Amino acid sequence: MLHDDEPSTTPDSQVASAAQSAPAAAPATPAATHPATPAAPAASYRSVAITAEQFEAFSDAHPLGNFQQSPGMMRLAADQDGHDVDLVGIESDGELRGAAMMVTAKSHFGNEGSIWLGPLVDGRDPELVRAMTAAIEETAKSRHAYCVTCWPADVYRRRTSQGEPDGEANNTMMDNYAANGWQHHGFTRGYGEVVNRWVYVKDLTGIADDKALLKSYDKRTQWSVKRAQSMGVHVREIGEDEFDVFARIERQTAERRSFKAREEAYFHRFKKAFGGKAHFMLAEIHIAEYVADMEAKRKALREKVAQLQAKYDVHSTTRTERQLGEESRNLAAAEKRLAEAEVFAKDGDVLPAAASLFVEHPQEMVYLFSGSVAAYKPFYASALIQYEAMRLCLERGITRYNFYGISGVFDDPHDEGRGVLEFKQGFNGYVEELAGRLTLPVNGLRFHVSELAHKLLGR
Length: 459
Description:
The protein is α+β, with helices and mostly antiparallel strands. Helices cover 40% and strands 23% of the residues. The protein folds into two domains: 2-200 and 434-457, Gcn5-related N-acetyltransferase (GNAT) (Aminopeptidase); 206-288 and 348-398, Gcn5-related N-acetyltransferase (GNAT) (Aminopeptidase), CATH 3.40.630. The strands form three sheets. Strands 8-16-10-15-14-13-12-11 form an eight-stranded mixed beta sheet. A seven-stranded mixed beta sheet has the order 3-4-5-6-7-17-9, sandwiched between helices. Helix 2 crosses helix 8 (264-274), helix 3 (126-142) packs across helix 4 and helix 9 packs antiparallel against helix 10 (318-345). The relative contact order is 0.19. Residues 1-38 are annotated as: Disordered. Belongs to the FemABX family.
């Protein structure tokens, strides 16, 4: 996934899909707050076959449910050659208690299974984790996979927006996975994982309207949103007939930031898989509106400067001189922006400035991909797109807005993810630290050979 955010840009994680690994992050509620699933006796849990419809209903209702564990991702994965998709279910007393979507694909050492942001189980329930692990292992064996890697959606620890711990670590979950043979790859920071271990989230609970939403941001971000609105920037959802514009902006961003861009065909496949739950948003500058706004401001500034100049000529004071200097600089800035607008107008009457893909799930809205046109950065289109996406959440009754990946580094101003972190912090959310990558060896010999090879190759 690529996010191109104010004030600067860095890559996020990658959307884990069978098509290609990509940004991922947690959709879970904080471990300290979501209710635990009551533990049942080990004998009462059993593996069951489930349909896509059952899986969808379970994911929609589960506290850890997310788009990576949904029929949409099943369709996207199945659309990729060489990928097999299986659903695993765990039942107790006739009720589905856990579920997972596993994708199996060939690697250098044989088939490997992947479960992105799953399995959907309460990691604090030891017997449920045990039953799910056994079911995953059996499914992996049926696909001749030598290992399965999962990235649980459970929150390991909730943190403040500044990265400070805000609650206890979920060590019970980690212990339960370890007890069932899952090997943890460490509490990492930075980018590079298939599923990012650190995510930024905003809770929209209690925000009743657009005014309250805007007020919930910090002052700088409020200003950016208002500034974009006043500069003729509008956001709309686009259809597949305009995906070439979306792909072009993403490609330009990737070239600027030295990342591999996705082809337009991928976005068509994504839309086909997720349908109305995939929202491709485009922010555009309406030049005529911008020019009219700037001309009105220039007129007002000219009048103000003339008044201050006349006042200063009659009776010069330090205060009047300071005001005159300030308003004269504002007037010069307005003149400069109008001159720039004349240049922009040569590109057209309506200019695409930024684009983002948001994925809707009953549990959350995910900010997945984005890109922007560098020349139009002063129009703050990226901030306005976020605001409009959150307005959509309010309309749909979705109370969790997931900005997805951050690097997890909070104390280094030179960190590659600093710009993305500061942009997201401006919306006043909090941080979720996830468990990270866990691998279950299924064929011990092949697994150890692959691990040895990875160490020798430095991977």
